[in-house]
Design brief:
about 140 residues, mainly alpha, 4 helices, about 5% strand
Length: about 140
C-alpha cells in the first residue's frame, strides 16, 4: 500500500493517482534544501519548479543581489570619465550578466506568483524567519 502525500489515504502501489483526492501518487513534493547558492539560479525551469517555496525565496534574494551588483558595475563603467580606457569585454560582460540575472529573477518571480499569488517586493530576514516559523509549527 502507498499513502497519498496530500490526504494521507491508503492506495494500491500500482495506482497512479489517489483514489480519494486524485493527487499524483508518485510525484515528490518539494523538500527544503540544506543549502541554496547563486549557481542554482542557472538551473532549468523543470528543476526550479521542484524547489521548495522557501528555497525559491532565498534564491530570489541572491539573484536580486547579484543583479544589483551587475547593474551598479554597468553604471560605474558608463559614468567613467571621458577618454578612460575601458575594455569592451568588461562592458559586454557586465551587460550580459545583468540580462542573465534579470531573466533568472523573472523566472523565479513567476514560479513564486504561481505558488503564492504574488511576488514579494523584498525578501529580507524578517520574511524568511516568519515563513520558517510557520513551517516549523505546522
Amino acid at each position: 500500500m502507498m499513502k497519498c502525500s496530500y490526504c494521507d489515504s491508503e492506495n494500491k502501489l500500482t495506482d497512479q493517482a489517489c483514489s480519494v483526492c486524485g493527487a499524483p501518487l508518485h510525484k515528490k513534493r518539494p523538500q527544503l534544501k540544506e543549502y541554496v547558492s547563486l549557481q542554482d539560479s542557472a538551473l532549468s525551469f523543470e528543476e526550479l519548479k521542484d524547489f521548495h517555496t522557501y528555497d525559491l525565496l532565498v534564491l530570489l534574494r541572491l539573484v536580486r543581489e547579484e543583479r544589483s551588483k551587475s547593474y551598479n558595475l554597468m553604471r560605474t563603467v558608463q559614468k567613467a570619465p571621458e577618454g578612460a580606457e575601458i575594455d569592451k569585454g568588461v562592458i559586454e560582460f557586465g551587460e550580459s550578466e545583468y540580462r542573465f540575472y534579470t531573466a533568472r529573477m523573472k523566472l523565479i518571480e513567476g514560479l513564486l506568483i504561481d505558488r503564492m499569488g504574488y511576488k514579494p517586493k523584498r525578501v529580507d530576514d524578517k520574511l524568511l524567519a516568519a515563513l520558517k516559523h510557520r513551517m516549523e509549527s505546522k
